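Follow-up to my earlier ticket, as requested here are the two runs.
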Amino acid sequence: MQSVSYQENTLKEKLEYCFKEYETLIKGNSLFKINLPNLSSSPFPIDIIVKEFKKTRDGFAHGRFTDISDEAIAGFVAVKIFLYIMQLKHIGYNDENIHKILEKIYH
């Protein structure tokens, strides 16, 4: 996969691509150190996040407005950060400046 824009890729594949592609930007970033009781010991459990995304989306689509899980919120935050990274890279910011910008936004 060369980009997250290809529609035939799954959400899991897109998230895996982002974590790999932007590893230097998120490595050591406290925003990606998730300490939620229901999550595994992995740094960012993509499988659980994807499952919660789907569950939340299906609930809203079928009129079941329930609480959004911590796992789904963590996924939404990750996607938002990746969108910032992609936009800032697109307009020419380097990794160091992007990292500084993310730190200012989230801290």
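Run two:
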Amino acid sequence: MTTEQAPPRAVPRNEVALAELFARLSREMGALETESLRVESVLAGFLDGQRPDGDRAAQESASIQTLDRLVQTLSELRCFLDHLAGTAPAISLDLHNATSGIRLGRLSDMLAGRETDVPAADGAVDFF
């Protein structure tokens, strides 16, 4: 005897599957990471005393102006996620595997619900 499976439920246009939402957020975070690395490189050059000229100076100036967009995007993502947290249905996820690949211990602990009392960075900047 074969059992017929019901067709997958169509997701209304104003809803999104969690996997798709997570993929979208991942792509956006990747873009922010790329832009941040570009800005970090420019700032490291300035701190090392490099003074670009001509076209390179214009490109680096544009990279630094990207900081404003980065801050605005992170702020909007925070608001979006805060809203989702307040309206999300009661669904649980196993975060063990997802957090096991995170190299920043404090971030991994926070995401897994193991918040630490480690204070935030004091503003010191490390360029690698």
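The only thing I checked on run two: The mean pLDDT is 79. Let me know what else you need.
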